[in-house]
Amino acid sequence: MNFGTAITTGFQKYSEFTGRASRSEFWWFNLFVVLVSLGASALWDVLGWLWFLAIIVPYLAVGVRRLRDAGFAWQLIFVGLAPVIGTVVMIVLWTQPSKVDSAA
């Protein structure tokens, strides 16, 4: 998946917590979120906060779909709430390769 497709898919599946997200989809969407966050915050702090509020649901949705694709339970997203260690754990889990369903 390329950069533009990942962004489009991320917003089309705005609040879809079911399904799967490939590593490329997740990381391209993540890059987009970070770049826009930096730009918005550089322009105006309030704009940065508004962007954060607008993007939190799709960011969580793509994160949950990525965890599911890697074969982990979606509840692990709550580990990311722990300050430093949670972030490191989530990055490691999000980088794991996709797991093939045994039923498929």
Structure explained in plain terms:
- The structure is a single chain.
- The chain is mainly alpha-helical and 104 residues long.
- It has one domain.
- The chain is 64% helix and 0% strand.
- It is built from four helices and no strands.
- The protein has helices at residues 3-12, 23-43, 45-69, 84-94.
- The longest helix has 25 residues, at 45-69.
- One of its GO terms (cellular component) is plasma membrane.
- Pfam families: DUF805.
- The chain crosses the membrane at residues 27-60, 72-94.
- InterPro entries: DUF805.
Q: Beta-sheet strand percentage?
A: under 5%
- Distinct helical segment count: 4
Helix content: 55-70%
> Main β-sheet: number of strands, strand sense, barrel status?
none
- End-to-end Cα distance: 22 Å
**Topology as H/E string?**
HHHH
Task: Give the oligomer, counting copies of the same chain as homo and different chains as hetero.
Answer: single chain
Q: Are there runs of 5+ residues with pLDDT below 50, and where? A: none
Cα shape: globular
Structural class: mainly alpha
Q: What is the gyration radius calculated from CA atoms?
A: 14 Å
Domain tally: 1
Mean pLDDT: 90
Q: Please report the total strand number as a whole number.
A: 0
Transmembrane segments: 27-60, 72-94
GO cellular component, one term: plasma membrane
Keywords: Membrane, Transmembrane, Transmembrane helix
